[in-house]
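Q: My labmate handed me this sequence with no annotations at all. I'd like to see what the chain might look like in three dimensions before we decide whether it's worth expressing. Could you predict it?
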Amino acid sequence: MKKSTIALAVATTLVLGTGIAYAANDEPISPIKPPANINLGAVELGKKLYFDPRLSKSGFISCNSCHNLSMGGTDNIPTSIGDKWQQGPINAPTVLNSSLNLAQFWDGRAADLKAQAGGPIANPGEMGFSHTLAVNVLQSIPGYVREFKQVFGKDKIEIGDVTAAIAEFEKTLVTPNARFDQWLLGKADALSADELEGYNLFKNAGCVACHNGEAVGGNSFQKMGLVEPYKATSDAEGRAAVTGQDADRFNFKVPTLRNVELTYPYFHDGAANTLTQAVDIMGRLQLGRRFSAKENARIVAFLKTLTGDQPSFQLPILPPSADATPRPTPFGK
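A: Here is what I predict for the chain of 333 residues:
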């Protein structure tokens, strides 16, 4: 028997003193895979653009401001802070593993990462710029002109290339090797008995109907408040704002649960500050189930096993502005 076959056989019969056997190859959750077919030149350029605040009117806000890679790919506040200290309308979803989503934004209005990357730049409540002005800034910086030509073969920078580079970098922001992934791949002692009990509860209660696959979510739209109505602190209408269909009102993209212990506060309005609160609310509103304190704690313990290896790289050194580069206007003057 081949080693790979033996490993699979072991992975399908794990029992850790709980009386519960788990078949890793039949689980509704699958391990994170490393990114494939990546353009390394575009990744390095996109990394610079991701961290460059000159893509904003104020010269202060970058992609990383709201999707901080030191904080689980989000900003850990209910709604993000935009240009001129404006309060955002919705919680910033994590950028980690976002390439696994069926669409981008809570309402799915962007089909992919490239389409999403252009949104905040031109949003007056976020980075407060325009695509034309952002391209003008980049075009005035000799270091960027050289690098864009190396990657895209053009002398002229175009917004489509800007968003393509950012998206290519974001594709690399996957978080493999979570302890749960290790368990799925056959490491019998990767999880404790309580964590396994939590996963069993997570499955049997029905959480996996929406939270499944590689990202443990992100692959469907669901109504917030199936059993009981959800009293949101946000005016966001969900998918209905995109489709115009009343049936899609309060339908939101199911968030990924990967790295969920890092991505608080939770829900589209950031109303749940802790995983304990989130599990309680989702149990009642989506499943019609009231988890006991012990059950809740075990589910939370399982969710924390979904934290994977965080992106690790050297921070980019951004090319300096030239004398002709338009200067930012942080105070609106």
